[in-house]
Write a structure and sequence with these properties.
By secondary structure, the chain is mainly beta. It has one domain: OB fold (Dihydrolipoamide Acetyltransferase, E2P) (Beta Barrel). It has two helices and eight strands; from the N terminus they run E-E-H-E-E-E-E-E-E-H. The strands form two sheets. Strands 3, 4, 5, 6, 7 and 8 form a six-stranded antiparallel beta sheet that branches. A two-stranded antiparallel ribbon has the order 1-2. A hairpin with a 4-residue loop joins strand 4 and strand 5. The longest helix has 10 residues, at about 135-140. The chain is globular and about 50 Å long. The relative contact order is 0.22.
Length: about 140
């Protein structure tokens, strides 16, 4: 994955196994890999400065998500997503509501005092709820 930034707008460039850009994780595959699928609201942001040598001074951001609705799986009513400041992060904004396909993993740089990390891929079907109506309809058909 490569990060593209233009005038403070950043998005991940998703590559498939052959390094072809534009890859999108198939919905069925993402659903099977997800510990939970939720509608959740980003309610808190905490920027971390864990590495003093980082040129941008922010090495990661922890986002607190408040679950509005569980579509699949089990998850706490509020949980945190640890987003390293790299091209593999999912972009959030405070007070926006998202459809999130949540996987559990321990990303590079994740604090060692945490048991696990929640993550939402920027290359799948996660996105703002207002722009996810077709994905929600497809989920209703396959679940």
């Amino acid at each position: 994955m490569t990060l593209v930034c233009v005038s403070y707008v950043c998005s991940a460039v998703c590559l498939d196994d052959k390094l072809i850009s534009g890859y999108h994780i198939p919905l069925n595959q993402e659903l099977k890999a997800s510990a939970a699928v939720v509608i959740g609201k980003a309610i808190h942001r905490q920027d971390l400065t864990e590495d003093s040598t980082d040129p941008d001074d922010i090495t990661a951001t922890v986002w607190r998500i408040q679950v509005q609705r569980v579509i699949h799986g089990n998850i706490e009513p509020e949980f945190e997503i640890y987003n390293p400041n790299d091209s593999g992060r999912f972009s959030f904004e405070i007070n926006k509501t998202y459809l999130l396909f949540i996987t559990i993993e321990k990303p590079v740089g994740y604090p060692t005092n945490k048991k696990f990390g929640y993550w939402a891929s920027p290359c799948g079907s996660s996105g703002e709820e207002s722009q996810s109506k077709s994905v929600l309809m497809q989920l209703g058909e396959i679940m």
